[in-house]
C-alpha cells in the first residue's frame, strides 16, 4: 500500500512538472496514472481538469470536476469552478452558432450557481437566438417573482413582448419600469415608439370613419389601443364606432371605462409641458365628450328598443341618459314617445312639457303635445266628460292649429255640452281644412236647418273664423322655422299617429296619401252622382236605360278633376239648384 502511495505521488509530481512546462497532454497522462493508483484523491481530479481546461477540452474538464465534487460535495469552490467551466463551454458553442448546445451548458452553469445572474442572461441570449421568445418571457417572469423587481428587468421583458407582438403587455411593462425609475432611457424611448404607433393608428381610424368605413375604423382604433391601452380618448372613439355599428353594449362599456380612466388620470397621454390647469381642462373636455357620446348611445339604444316595440326597455335606457343630460330635450321627447306607446298619457305629457320648457320653439314637441292632448280628450269624451274633453281638444289646437280632426273632436264635445255657437265655429274650421268631411257637413246642417253649407261657409262668421284660423296657423309656423335652424344630434322617435310632423324624407309617402285622398274624393263624387240619378220607385216605362258613352259617364263623375260644387238646398217648397 505504501508503494502505491509513493508511485501515485511520483506520477502527480511529474504531472505538475509537465503542467509547469505547458506540456498539458503529458500532464494529463501523469494525472491519469496517479488517479488509477489513488482514485479518491480530489486534488488529482482538480489538476487533471485544469490541464484539460488549458487544452480547451471543456467536456473532459467538466467530467474531472464532477468527480471532484462527488468526492467533496461540501466544497463550494469546486461547484463554482465547474459552473465557470460550463459557462466557458457554452460561450464557445454560442460563438460557433451552436445555440441549443450552448443553452444546455449555460443551464448547467446556472443550476450550479443560481446566484450568478450572468449565467442566466447567457441562457436568455441562447433562447433569443433560437427565437424562443415565449421561453424568454417565462424566464424573465421567474426572475421578477423570485428576485427584486428592477426597471431593467421590466424593460427587458417589454422588449420580449414586443418581439412576440404583444404590444399591450409591452406597454404595461414599460409603465411599470418608468414607475420604478422615471429616468430609465430605454423604457422612455420604447414607450415613445408605442405612443407614436398608437397615434398613427388613430389617425388612420379617423380617416376611415370620416369616409363611413366604420368596421375598418374599429380595427384601426383597436390597434391604437393595443399600443396605448390607457388612453381615454381611444376608448371614446371606439365607443363611438360601436354606437355607429349598433353594438350598444360594447359602446356603453367603452365609454364608461373612458370616464373612469379619465377620472383616475389619463396614463396613456404623451407628456407635455402644459400646466396642471391645462391638464385639468383637458380632462374636463374628455369627460364631457365621453358623457355626450354615452348619452347618444343610450338614446340610439332606446330608438332601437322603440322600433322593436320594447317600450319599457326604452324608458329604462332613457332614464340613465337623462341622469347624465338633464337639459337635452330630445331625451324627454323620446321617453315621452315610449310612454305614449305604453298608454301612459300623463307621463308622456309630463315629458313633452319638460322638453317644451327646454326647447320652446321645437315644432316636433308642439305636435306631440297636440297628439297627447287630443288622445286625452278622446278618452274624456268616451267617459262623457264633455267639457274636460273640449278643454283637452283646445290644448291640442293651441299646439297644432292646422289639424282638422282636432276641431272636429272639439265640435262634437261642444255639441254635447251644449255650446252650439262654438260647435258651429269648429265645424266651419274643420270644413275649411277638410272640405270632404261629410260627417261634419251633417253636423253643420243640423245646426243650421234650411241653410246650405255654401251659405254657411260664405257668411260673415265663417270669414271671421277663417281669418282667425289662418292667423293661428301662421303664428304656429314661425317657431317651427326657427327650430329647423337649431338641429339636434339625437335621433328622434316618430309616433305613428303624428302625421303633422313629417320630414322631407317622408315626401314619397305623403304623395301616395294625397293620391289616395284624390281617389276617395272621386269615389265619393261617383256615389253622390249615383244617388242623385237614381230612378223613382214608380216607373211605368220600359226598364231599359238609354245608352251612355264612357266619356259622358266620366264627365258627370268628375274623373277629369272637375272641381266639386256642393249641392245647394233651398227652403222648403223652393226648387233647389
Q: Which second-level CATH architecture of the domain at 327-526 applies?
A: Alpha Horseshoe
Radius of gyration: 48 Å
First-last Cα distance: 161 Å
Global mean pLDDT? 81
* Share of helical residues: over 70%
For the record, the CATH class of the domain at 327-526 is: Mainly Alpha
DSSP strand tally: 0
- What portion of the residues fall into strands of 2 or more residues? under 5%
Question: What would CATH call the homologous superfamily of the domain at 327-526?
Answer: Tetratricopeptide repeat domain
Structural class: mainly alpha
Q: In sequence order, what are the helices and strands, one letter per element?
A: HHHHHHHHHHHHHHHHHHHHHHHHHHH
- Largest pleated sheet: none
Number of helices: 27
Q: What best-fitting shape do the alpha-carbon axes yield?
A: rod-shaped
CATH-derived topology of the domain at 327-526: Serine Threonine Protein Phosphatase 5, Tetratricopeptide repeat
Low-confidence stretches: 267-273, 481-489, 495-517, 534-577
Region (Disordered): 265-286, 540-577
Keywords: TPR repeat
TPR repeats: 8-41, 42-75, 83-116, 329-362, 370-403
Biased composition (Basic and acidic residues): 275-286, 540-555
Amino acid at each position: 500500500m505504501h508503494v502505491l502511495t509513493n508511485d501515485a505521488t511520483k506520477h502527480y509530481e511529474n504531472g505538475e512538472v509537465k503542467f509547469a512546462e505547458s506540456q498539458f497532454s503529458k500532464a494529463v497522462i501523469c494525472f491519469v496514472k496517479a488517479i488509477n493508483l489513488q482514485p479518491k484523491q480530489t486534488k488529482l481530479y482538480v489538476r487533471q481538469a485544469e490541464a484539460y481546461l488549458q487544452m480547451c477540452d471543456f467536456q473532459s474538464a467538466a467530467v474531472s470536476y464532477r468527480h471532484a465534487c462527488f468526492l467533496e460535495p461540501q466544497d463550494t469552490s469546486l461547484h463554482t469552478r465547474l459552473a465557470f467551466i460550463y459557462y466557458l463551454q457554452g460561450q464557445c458553442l454560442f460563438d460557433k452558432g451552436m445555440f441549443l448546445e450552448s443553452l444546455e451548458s449555460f443551464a448547467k452553469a446556472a443550476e450550479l450557481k443560481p446566484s450568478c445572474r450572468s449565467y442566466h442572461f447567457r441562457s436568455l441570449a441562447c433562447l433569443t437566438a433560437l427565437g424562443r421568445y415565449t421561453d424568454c418571457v417565462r424566464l424573465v417572469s421567474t426572475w421578477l417573482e423570485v428576485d427584486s423587481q428592477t426597471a431593467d428587468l421590466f424593460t427587458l421583458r417589454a422588449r420580449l413582448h414586443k418581439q412576440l407582438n404583444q404590444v399591450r403587455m409591452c406597454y404595461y411593462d414599460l409603465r411599470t419600469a418608468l414607475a420604478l425609475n422615471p429616468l430609465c432611457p430605454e423604457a422612455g424611448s420604447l414607450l415613445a415608439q408605442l405612443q407614436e404607433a398608437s397615434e398613427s393608428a388613430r389617425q388612420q381610424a379617423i380617416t376611415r370613419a370620416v369616409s363611413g368605413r366604420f368596421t375598418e375604423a374599429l380595427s384601426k382604433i383597436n390597434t391604437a389601443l393595443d399600443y396605448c391601452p390607457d388612453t381615454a380618448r381611444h376608448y371614446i372613439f371606439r365607443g363611438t364606432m360601436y354606437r355607429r355599428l349598433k353594438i350598444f353594449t360594447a359602446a356603453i362599456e367603452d365609454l364608461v371605462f373612458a370616464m373612469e380612466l379619465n377620472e383616475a388620470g389619463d396614463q396613456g397621454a404623451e407628456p407635455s409641458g402644459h400646466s396642471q390647469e391645462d391638464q385639468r381642462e383637458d380632462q374636463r373636455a374628455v369627460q364631457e365628450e365621453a358623457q355626450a357620446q354615452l348619452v347618444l348611445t343610450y338614446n340610439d339604444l332606446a330608438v332601437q328598443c322603440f322600433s322593436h316595440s320594447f317600450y319599457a326597455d326604452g324608458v329604462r335606457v332613457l332614464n340613465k341618459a337623462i341622469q347624465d343630460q338633464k337639459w337635452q330635450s330630445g331625451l324627454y321627447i323620446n321617453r315621452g314617445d315610449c310612454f305614449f306607446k305604453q298608454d301612459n298619457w300623463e307621463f308622456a305629457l309630463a315629458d313633452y312639457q319638460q322638453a317644451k320648457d327646454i326647447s320652446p320653439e321645437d315644432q316636433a314637441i308642439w305636435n306631440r303635445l297636440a297628439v297627447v292632448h287630443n288622445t286625452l280628450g278622446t278618452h274624456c269624451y268616451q267617459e262623457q266628460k264633455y267639457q274636460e274633453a273640449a278643454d283637452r281638444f283646445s290644448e291640442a289646437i293651441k299646439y297644432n292649429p292646422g289639424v282638422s280632426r282636432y276641431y272636429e273632436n272639439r265640435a262634437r264635445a261642444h255639441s254635447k255640452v251644449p255650446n252650439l255657437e262654438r260647435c258651429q265655429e269648429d265645424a266651419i274650421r274643420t270644413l275649411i281644412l277638410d272640405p270632404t268631411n261629410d260627417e261634419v257637413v251633417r253636423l253643420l246642417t243640423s245646426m243650421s236647418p234650411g241653410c246650405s253649407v255654401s251659405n254657411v261657409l260664405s257668411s260673415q262668421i265663417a270669414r271671421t273664423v277663417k281669418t282667425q284660423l289662418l292667423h293661428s296657423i301662421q303664428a304656429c309656423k314661425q317657431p317651427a322655422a326657427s327650430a329647423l335652424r337649431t338641429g339636434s344630434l339625437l335621433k328622434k322617435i316618430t309616433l305613428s299617429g303624428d302625421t303633422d310632423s313629417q320630414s322631407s324624407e317622408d315626401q314619397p309617402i305623403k304623395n301616395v296619401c294625397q293620391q289616395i285622398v284624390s281617389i276617395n274624393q272621386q269615389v265619393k263624387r261617383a256615389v253622390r252622382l249615383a244617388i242623385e240619378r237614381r230612378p223613382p220607385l214608380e216607373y211605368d216605362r220600359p226598364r231599359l236605360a238609354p245608352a251612355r258613352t264612357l266619356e259622358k259617364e266620366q264627365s258627370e263623375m268628375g274623373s277629369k278633376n272637375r272641381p266639386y260644387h256642393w249641392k245647394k238646398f233651398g227652403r222648403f217648397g223652393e226648387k233647389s239648384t
